[in-house]
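Hey, resending since the last one bounced:
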Amino acid sequence: MVNIMQDEKYIKAYIGKNYDKIMNSTFSWPTFLISIIYFFYRKLWLYAIIYYIISFIITLIFDTIFKMPTITSLISVIYSFIVAKKFKDLYLYKINRDIKKIRMSTNNEEEILEKIKKKGGVSNIALIIALVVYLVVFIITFKEEYEMIFDLLDHTNDIVEEKVTKINYNVPSGFLNNYESNTYSSYEYTDKENNCNFIIQTMNNNYDNEEMYLKNVYQASNIDSIIINNYTWYYFNEENSCIYALIYEDKLYTLNYYIKLDNGTCSGFLNDLTNSLNLVTE
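The structure tokens again:
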């Protein structure tokens, strides 16, 4: 315990607000709860800096280096408890030093009391500044942790609101599904007489446009376009095959139609099929 050598009137003038409460307490709740902010409020600038440096070192060692956030929190609470328990002694130590210096500077009693009041007391301006700084530091410090939570919530919302675009078509009467693959949504249909068949595919797009796809994959020439259900499809006819392509967002949709023997029926099937092509969002 620090030995109080100065007159009580000087100490009372220095502390000012809440003098009796501070002098009669054995534990400082403001120090325990808001530490640095309270130090600034009481004009204990050096104490605030020292407290912050030690707190920073604790966080650096146990949280950043050793990745032990629970231990960091525990040590920080213990540290705050010790400082709060010793606050009155630390405060009186500073008070005695300041009063001693002031009394050595002059013998005028009124001037001594005036200087003591000015040196001590509280600072509302420092309190406001400390609160603002503390809030900024708090936001920056915990920003990453909160961002993880918000990102998870945003991702969840994306999943709930996600809409998938798929190709829709009507399979002509008499065609059977011969092949189906989940790898890239491929379906092959063959008519009962095996005179014609078609393949519908959906795959990730790696081409700048539909014409590039048709030229690169099929060496197509004389590429035409047609609007089907408000979407522009590009296509070409070559001997007994007809290839259609549509790029929408990040997907490439294709229709490959092959005719082995056409008695007029296969061409009719192709017309019905192409007229039914559409993209739907689920």
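Strands lie at 165-168, 175-181, 186-191, 196-204, 224-228, 231-238, 241-248, 251-259, 278-281.

Sorry for the duplicate.
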